[in-house]
Specification:
104 residues; alpha+beta; 4-stranded antiparallel β-sheet
C-alpha cells in the first residue's frame, strides 16, 4: 500500500517506536484520533528495526519486529522476528541475531 520507503524514530525499543508512531499524529488535534491512526499504521508498516549502541559505542541491530496488521485496544499488535543475543558467540562477518518468531 502506498509508496515504499523508510523512516527513523527515536525510541528505546521497536515496540515503543510503533507506539510513538501511533501517538504523535494525535498531537494534530481533534480532527484525528487513535481509531484512525492505528489501523492506518498497521497497514503501512512492514518491519521495525531497533538499533542501539554496544559497550564499545558501535551501533548494532537489537531487534526486528513485524506488525501483524491487527489493532487491539488501539495498539498495534506485533511479533518478534529477530533479537540480539549477547550470549552467542558469532563468527566474524556474520550478524549476531537469532530467529525468534515469524517466518520470512
Amino acid at each position: 500500500m502506498g509508496v515504499p520507503g523508510a523512516a527513523t524514530v527515536h525510541a528505546n525499543s521497536a515496540v515503543e517506536a510503533l507506539e510513538k508512531l501511533t501517538l504523535l499524529p494525535l498531537l494534530a488535534g481533534r480532527n484525528i484520533d487513535r481509531s484512525f491512526v492505528a489501523p492506518a499504521l498497521a497497514r503501512a508498516v512492514d518491519l521495525v528495526v531497533h538499533c542501539a549502541r554496544d559497550s564499545a559505542g558501535r551501533r548494532r541491530v537489537e531487534e526486528v519486529i513485524e506488525p501483524t496488521g491487527e489493532v487491539v485496544h488501539g495498539r498495534l499488535v506485533s511479533r518478534p522476528v529477530y533479537r540480539h543475543d549477547d550470549g552467542d558467540i558469532v563468527r566474524p562477518g556474520r550478524a549476531d541475531l537469532r530467529r525468534v518468531g515469524a517466518p520470512l
